[in-house]
Amino acid sequence: MVSEQLVEVDPSGDPVRCRSFTQFGFGKDTVTGRYKLIWLYNEYPAAATRSTFCEVLDLEDKKWRFVDTSTSLLDHHVLNEQRPAFANGSFYWLTGDEGGFPTTQTKLIVFDIHTEVFRVTPTPPCVDVDACGDKIGVCNLDGRLCVSELKGDCKLRVLVDG
């Protein structure tokens, strides 16, 4: 049964810094049954220790909290203008360059919604090593992660995790 409830979202804010890539992800922790809103963003100018930040709103607690990204996302920036994919209990984003733009060094940022831990992995073998991030797509396909690459000849290479 789905119930309707309005929750006001008020992320913490610092007017001095600029946030780019501020799209949210929404998912359900299948271990606890709790719904969470995830906010992963790049911040400019970059802080001394990192430029990618994450905040989580557990809809039961109704409080925002920061997730430590200082070691797991060090030197990794979120690719701008993409929506995260939620599959297998994790969110998936692609990496970009320091400005959040597509790069040929693209990797997958994976965030486990239950443990709230990040890891960065290479793109799957179906994606060319030097593929630019704007040619790679991530989505949920029947509850599983789907990663695709649009090739120069307009052919599409797809991997469905499962």
UniProtKB/TrEMBL annotation:
Transmembrane segments: none annotated. InterPro entries: F-box-assoc_dom_typ1, F-box-assoc_interact_dom, Gal_Oxase/kelch_b-propeller, SCF_F-box_component. It comes from the Eukaryota. Residues 18-148 form the F-box associated beta-propeller type domain. Pfam families: FBA_1. PANTHER family: BNACNNG10540D PROTEIN (PTHR31672), F-BOX PROTEIN CPR30-LIKE (PTHR31672:SF13). This is F-box associated beta-propeller type 1 domain-containing protein. It comes from Microthlaspi erraticum. The lineage of its organism: Eukaryota, Viridiplantae, Streptophyta, Embryophyta, Tracheophyta.
